[in-house]
Design a protein that fits this description.
mainly alpha
Length: 72
């Protein structure tokens, strides 16, 4: 493959429409897998939080894990 092809392909996958199509395909595959999982007697996954908002005042400095050593 030549550089023109690679550039065109890179431009194609960097577009919003590609992301939308990729998300739709992933959703279809997940739905199909889940249907098979349930048909085989598996329990559906429980919904999980994606993230949780925590206020700064509720976090102590010692609770924050870091690999950065800050000198005071």
């Amino acid at each position: 493959m030549n550089n023109d092809f690679e550039k065109a392909f890179s431009d194609f996958i960097d577009r919003r429409e590609y992301d939308q199509a990729e998300n739709a395909l992933f959703a279809m595959v997940r739905i199909a897998f889940l249907a098979g999982w349930k048909a085989a007697g598996g329990n559906p996954p429980q919904p999980q939080k994606i993230f949780q908002i925590v206020h700064k005042k509720d976090i102590s400095e010692s609770a924050i894990e870091t690999d950065i050593n800050l000198k005071k």
